[in-house]
């Protein structure tokens, strides 16, 4: 991973603008899941650290824009760039990071560059759907999972496919692995938004629903509630949550095992990924660690 950090540093230096170096330095790097995955798949390939750095810059850019769109003031426990330096700066920093990432893609085979670049179109479509869906109460599980695939899983999928192509491994199998890892990862994120606290999350707890996002546990809850309670849940949607509504939601989710049901789906998706990659111990390990982080 040190080689990835070194490549990131090099790319930022190449941008040659002190303000960008300063602002980038204020970002918390996060788990670097995508880069780790690339290194695990294309371990000995000399271009793997650069591919990892590119994907991490794209991811960082997408989060900068996402925080502007979601009006989030906290990211990974630190103040977001839109909070400290304003939305205009956050958008422009995002633009610089992802265009730099894109221009570095020319170092790779056309097929790899295409997979990574087109996944950014897909994730941007996903973000658009997410914003649109948050305007109304959504109780459609399939629609939610489709959006989740576009918004979160595609970049992880393309990281896995890109790394597989880089070292001549089976791109399709790695694609299935990355897609399911991504979906499962996001479902667990959705669960943690409800079960965890602000200190652990680095952002306010139960914030998804306040932002209008009806994540899987809310969809399962809606399915299980009687019509009067369905109305109560719809009324609480997309606005600051009162303490009593927050407690009521958690209690009802407990009653109808909505967290467990969501976790079961995350586990099924992750098992499917484990199945296609059963011979690769390290990739199986990544899935296991990810599933364990939920409790
Ligand atoms: C986080 O979702 C957001 C994403 C995973 C994708 C955001 C994508 C864009 C803004 C498209 C633009 C892309 C580029 C490269 C500039 P979330 O809001 O559910 O998660 P959070 O709680 O971590 O904010
Ligand atoms: Mg967000």
Can you summarize this structure?
The chain has 16 helices and two strands. It is an all-alpha fold and 295 residues long. It has two domains: 1-30 and 48-107, Farnesyl Diphosphate Synthase, CATH 1.10.600.10; 108-295, Orthogonal Bundle (Farnesyl Diphosphate Synthase), CATH 1.10.600.
Q: Rough shape?
A: globular
- Largest beta-sheet characterization: 2 strands, antiparallel
Q: What count of helical segments does DSSP give? A: 16
Structural class, by secondary structure, is mainly alpha
Tell me roughly what share of residues is in helical segments.
over 70%
Q: Strand order within the widest sheet?
A: 1-2
Domains, number? 2
Ligand set: farnesyl diphosphate, magnesium ion
Structure explained in plain terms:
The structure is a single chain. The chain has 16 helices and two strands. A hairpin with a 2-residue loop joins strand 1 and strand 2. It starts with a helix and ends with a helix. The protein has two domains: 90 residues, Farnesyl Diphosphate Synthase, CATH 1.10.600; 188 residues, Farnesyl Diphosphate Synthase (Orthogonal Bundle). By secondary structure, it is mostly helical. Helix 4 runs antiparallel to helix 6 and helix 4 packs parallel to helix 7. The longest helix has 26 residues. A two-stranded antiparallel sheet has the order 1-2. Helix content is 76%, strand content 1%. The structure holds farnesyl diphosphate and magnesium ion. Farnesyl diphosphate binds next to helix 4, helix 6, helix 7 and helix 8.
């Amino acid at each position: 991973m040190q080689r990835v950090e070194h490549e990131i540093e090099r790319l930022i230096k190449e941008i040659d603008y002190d303000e960008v170096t300063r602002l980038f330095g204020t970002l918390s790097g996060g788990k670097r899941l995508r880069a780790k995955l690339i290194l695990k798949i294309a371990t000995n390939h000399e271009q793997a650290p650069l591919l990892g750095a590119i994907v991490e810059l794209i991811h960082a850019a997408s989060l900068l824009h996402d925080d502007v769109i979601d009006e989030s003031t906290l990211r990974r426990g630190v103040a977001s760039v839109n909070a400290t330096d304003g939305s205009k700066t956050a958008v422009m920093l995002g633009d610089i990071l992802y265009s730099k990432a894109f221009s570095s893609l020319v170092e790779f085979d056309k097929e790899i560059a295409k997979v990574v670049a087109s996944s950014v179109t897909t994730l941007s479509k996903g973000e658009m759907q997410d914003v649109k869906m948050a305007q109304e109460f959504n109780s459609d599980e399939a629609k939610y999972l489709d959006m989740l695939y576009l918004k979160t899983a595609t970049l992880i999928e393309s990281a896995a496919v890109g790394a597989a192509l880089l070292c001549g491994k089976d791109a399709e199998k790695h694609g299935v692995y990355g897609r399911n890892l991504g979906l499962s990862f996001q479902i667990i994120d959705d669960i943690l938004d409800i079960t965890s606290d602000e200190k652990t999350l680095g952002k306010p707890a139960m914030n998804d629903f306040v932002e209008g996002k009806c994540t899987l546990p809310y969809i399962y809850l809606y399915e299980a509630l009687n019509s009067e309670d369905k109305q109560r849940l719809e009324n609480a949607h997309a606005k600051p949550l009162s303490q009593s509504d927050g407690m009521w939601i958690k209690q009802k989710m407990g009653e109808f095992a909505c967290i467990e049901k969501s976790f079961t789906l995350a586990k099924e998706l992750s098992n499917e990924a484990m199945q296609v990659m059963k011979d690769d111990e390290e990739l199986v390990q990544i899935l296991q660690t990810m599933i364990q982080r939920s409790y």
